[in-house]
Design a protein that fits this description.
Low-confidence stretches: none
Number of strands: 4
Order of helices and strands: HHEEHEEH
Helix content: 40-55%
Structural class: mainly alpha
Strand content: 5-15%
Oligomer: single chain
Radius of gyration: 19 Å
Mean pLDDT: 87
Strand order of the largest sheet: 1-2
Number of helices: 4
Shape: elongated
Number of domains: 1
Length: 149
């Protein structure tokens, strides 16, 4: 049992006593902050535990010339694909559309075909979404600030 269990139970009671609009505003604020922290972490190419993402597989020396290799997940972390939602019952940070499959393959280290007729490739796990200790403290700060108002 956690030492903070009584505190967390009391906090859950305070949040439940908020109006639905107040809970929704709190959830939206948390979702926005969490999305920003996830975007920063993906940009720095780190897993939630602080380790670096697994490196890309080396390409053959005679690959296509003139091709620019960008950092991993540069477009995936944009607001177009990474959405933050908040409602009465919780806050959600998720990938939308067709990129959900790409994110899922990298999150869990699954097999996927990079091209329609290509061979299946097993990708190493790169945790795109996850909680860090900083995220937990940010959420606690948001809740206490919101309850103080």
């Amino acid at each position: 049992m956690s030492d903070f269990k009584p505190f967390e139970d009391k906090l859950a009671g305070l949040i439940a006593s908020l109006s639905p609009a107040g809970r929704r505003r709190l959830a939206v604020d948390m979702a926005k902050k969490l999305r920003q922290s996830q975007q920063r972490r993906i940009k720095s190419q780190q897993n939630p535990d602080g380790t670096a993402f697994a490196q890309r597989k080396r390409q053959p020396a005679r690959a296509k010339s003139g091709r620019v290799r960008r950092e991993m997940f540069a477009k995936l972390r944009t607001g177009r694909f990474m959405k933050a939602r908040g409602g009465d019952d919780g806050a959600v940070v998720e990938f939308t559309g067709k990129v959900q499959r790409i994110a899922q393959v990298h999150q869990y280290g699954l097999k996927d075909k990079p091209a329609r007729n290509g061979a299946a490739v097993e990708y190493p796990a790169r945790e795109l979404l996850g909680f860090t200790e900083d995220d937990r403290s940010v959420v606690e700060t948001i809740i206490t600030d919101h309850l103080a108002l």
